[in-house]
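Posting here for the record, re: magnesium ion.
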Amino acid sequence: MKRGRMSEDINLAMVLVAAGRGTRLGGDIPKQFLPLGGSTVLAQALSRAFIGGHCNRLVLVCHPDDAEQAGDSIRQARIDPAGVLLTSGGASRQDSVRLGLEALAATGFPDDGIVLIHDAARPFLEEAVLLRAAFAALRHGAAIPVLPVADTLARLDTAGQLLDNPDRESLRVVQTPQAFRFGLVRQAHRRFAAEGRSDFTDDAGLVWAAGHPVASFAGSADLFKITHAADLARAERFLGAAAVEMRCGFGYDVHAFTDGDHVMLGGVRIPHSHALLGHSDADPLLHAMTDALLGTIGDGDIGQHFPPSDPRWKGAASRIFLAEAVRLVHAAGGRIVNLDGTVICEAPKVGPHRVAMQALIAEVTGLTPDRIGIKATTSERLGFTGRREGIAAMAVASVALPR
Ligand code: MG
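Prediction output follows.
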């Protein structure tokens, strides 16, 4: 098979089951329509059904009373509604899947195509799982995603007393999407519907009962099912963590000593035997922090934003530069998490001014002082800082950005 989108090579469809009336999570709303991540559980599931562009048809099975809400979720998922066929479910999950498969058959979907049967209550499908499912079905005809059982299992008697501990080595937790050759799973569903059996809790069990072997492939912990309120809270946390990425940026700056009676460090005026030479107020710590912030958004450096050739910045307070870097990070949607700087010099001493520096940087950045690191070191009299020719500073910044 070629790399790239699977749909170029085979027919891949999904039957997404969202017909349950389960309101275990409270209220009158079936769980697939509960709010999640600014949309609904169903919209989150729909938004991932076409991940990677592999799936070329989707049948969404809903309760007839829920057609309007289902339409809302399709819009919220920002997928092409033309790729979604909405169909009504039946009295049981088994019936709903069968009706979904028949709706898919009515579109001319071929028997040798692959269909993924998936529950909307497992919204976080990843492309890797989808591909494992499709390849397993191509190879074996029927396959289920499984996870190992992590916990010890216990079999209890009716009084709740331990009978024995089943060997978990051969046991697996079964998830969806379950994957099948379309003709195989459709025939199995037709057969058991004709026989009046509607007690299958999943499609692999039904295909297996029809005499076809069922293979397995690795599922994913992220495919957890939303059943209880705690699952919904976990799903919100999952989306929150996935929605931001952490960036870090680095800055380094040096200014040479010249004649004078004070230096600016971290925005604080510190009396000293020399001054620092520079176009602005020559504050190496604020310059390093400014560059660190610009680094988090890939937006050049301080010299690019405030060229030394520009007379506007002659003698300028370096807090202006830091404030502009903060503004640019915010404009990019970023949130500064922390700034951490180190001043490298033999003198003056930084420690007595640390709190004042934190206060000034807090004012400019909006950070609390515990997120502003101010540290100092000498160079043990080595190198240019050791020879008291100037002051160097280094800084790192971390920024959370929407993905
Ligand atoms: Mg500088």
